[in-house]
Write a structure and sequence with these properties.
Elements lengths: L1 H15 L2 H18 L6 E2 L10 E2 L6 E2 L7 E7 L4 H12 L3 E6 L6 H10 L8 E5 L3 H5 L8 E4 L5 H22 L4 H7 L1 H18 L6 H37 L2 H7 L4 H30 L8 H26 L2 H19 L10 H7 L3 H13 L5 H29 L2
Parallel strand pairs: 1-3, 2-5, 4-5, 4-6
Antiparallel strand pairs: 6-7
Helix pairs in contact: 1-11, 2-9, 2-11, 3-6, 3-8, 9-11, 9-12, 9-13, 9-15, 11-12, 11-16, 12-13, 12-15, 12-16, 13-15, 15-16
Keywords: Cell membrane, Membrane, Transmembrane, Transmembrane helix
Subcellular location: Cell membrane
Pfam family, one: ABC2_membrane_3
Length: 419
């Protein structure tokens, strides 16, 4: 054990004399905390391609944009916020022709909705607006037509399809209300089979896409976490390079001989290097824990302790990977080039800069091999109230470390055989 502590103490003295190492350990967690407080434009973006989901928006002035052109984007002002208005919105979303965004936080009069629609015409990709008045359900149950309005924002042929589907469903509701003698309970029972059919479609789409449905605020929070993780990943990777540089120098300066002649085992040597990784990641996570409450005043969607837990696990995986690469390459400059390339490619593949749930299936599946992706997945699961997140993430981190520690041991053994 004395040899173990001596190796850790000596190696840390070397690391703390390196200004590059200190800059990475201190500055990148601060940068990461700053990215968590980043104020994004109030823009709603899609993080899934599920055709059967109504996406609720929390800010009436949100500008809605999308790069897809297969569905007409429709904004619904649902002032009724009733069972019948919700059923209409679900029917439109369930058609697969329209992407539905619904605002139902407060009552908005028709003139205000019309003015807001005109104002957002050049700022968003909304094709049409459906205005549902406050007395929509009451009017239907009184024999009326609901008095809703459709406003066309763009010259799109699919607006005719929207008007046709709305009118068809309103006619169905009127006939159903008449057949049930305008009894609300009986009407709700009659609509039950349609709701069950749409639910089955929704479940099937979620299973195939393996995606979560997030609100616009949760999308923003997930994006900020992605940017933060990208900065931290750089720090973890390059700190690993500094640790592997010590291993390479010990090999080149024949320190291996002196260490192993002192009866220190390969296991002790590998564990000492893992201890350096653990302490380095702990320092970075500690600095992040100190500066985040000072720099971040906005809610980033998950408990602060959970965020630190995810960061710590990621740091162990990424830093260990970097040490393995540096050990096997046996050249600090080449290791630097390699981990920089890994940083760029892995962040893109993991979807830290943009959502990948609508990407090709091979991309989505390949991203699950990248530790950063699991941080995003775990974060979004926590946002939506999923259970078993910590056990899942801990198991994944453990598997990564087991494989990477085996790689580190192989690298050390190869280096030992050279002497």
């Amino acid at each position: 054990m004395n040899g173990f502590f001596t190796m850790v103490k000596t190696n840390f003295k070397l690391l703390f004399r390196n200004k590059g190492y200190l800059c990475l350990v201190i500055l990148l967690p601060i940068l990461s905390a700053g990215l968590l407080s980043l104020q994004l434009d109030e823009t709603v973006t899609m993080k899934d391609d599920t055709s059967y989901v109504v996406q609720n928006i929390e800010d009436r002035d949100d500008n809605i944009t999308s790069i897809e052109n297969t569905k007409l984007l429709v904004k619904i002002y649902d002032n009724s916020n009733s069972e019948l208005s919700n059923d209409l919105a679900q029917d439109l979303a369930g058609s697969g022709i329209f992407r539905i965004f619904r605002y139902n936080q407060e009552v908005v009069d028709l003139a205000t909705a019309r003015a807001a629609s005109i104002d957002s015409a050049g700022k968003s990709n909304i094709g049409a607006v459906v205005y549902i008045p406050e007395n929509f359900e009451t009017d239907i149950l009184s024999g009326g037509s609901g008095n809703l309005s459709i406003m066309e924002i763009t010259d799109d042929g699919r607006n005719d399809l929207l008007a046709s589907q709305v009118n068809t469903y309103i006619s169905f509701m009127m006939q159903a209300a008449d057949s049930t003698n305008y009894d609300k309970t009986a009407l709700a029972s009659m609509l039950g089979e349609l709701k069950e059919s749409r639910l089955n479609k929704k479940i099937e789409a979620v299973e195939v896409g393996n995606s979560l449905t997030l609100t616009s605020q949760q999308n923003h929070q997930s994006t900020r976490i992605g940017y933060s993780i990208a900065a931290l990943t750089m720090g973890f990777l390059f700190c690993g390079v500094f640790i592997s540089d010590i291993i390479v120098k010990e090999k080149n300066n024949k320190v291996y001989n002196r260490i192993f002649l002192s009866k220190a085992s390969i296991l002790n040597y590998v564990v000492a290097k893992m201890a350096m990784i653990l302490l380095t990641v702990a320092i970075q996570t500690g600095i992040l824990a100190l500066v985040t409450p000072i720099m971040v005043s906005t809610d980033f969607g998950i408990p602060f302790g959970s965020y630190l837990f995810l960061v710590f696990g990621l740091g162990l995986c990424i830093s260990t990977l970097s040490v393995v690469i540096g050990t096997l390459v046996s050249n600090t400059m080449n290791a630097t080039y390699t981990v920089f390339a890994i940083w760029i490619v892995s962040n893109i593949m993991a979807g830290l800069y943009f959502p990948i749930t609508s990407a090709a299936q091979w991309w989505v599946k390949a991203s699950l091999l990248i530790p950063q992706r699991w941080v995003i997945v775990a974060s979004e699961m926590l946002m939506t109230g999923e259970t078993g997140v910590y056990a899942m993430y801990g198991l994944i981190v453990g598997c990564y470390l087991l494989i990477l520690m085996a790689g580190t041991s192989i690298g050390v053994m190869v280096g030992k055989k050279d002497y």
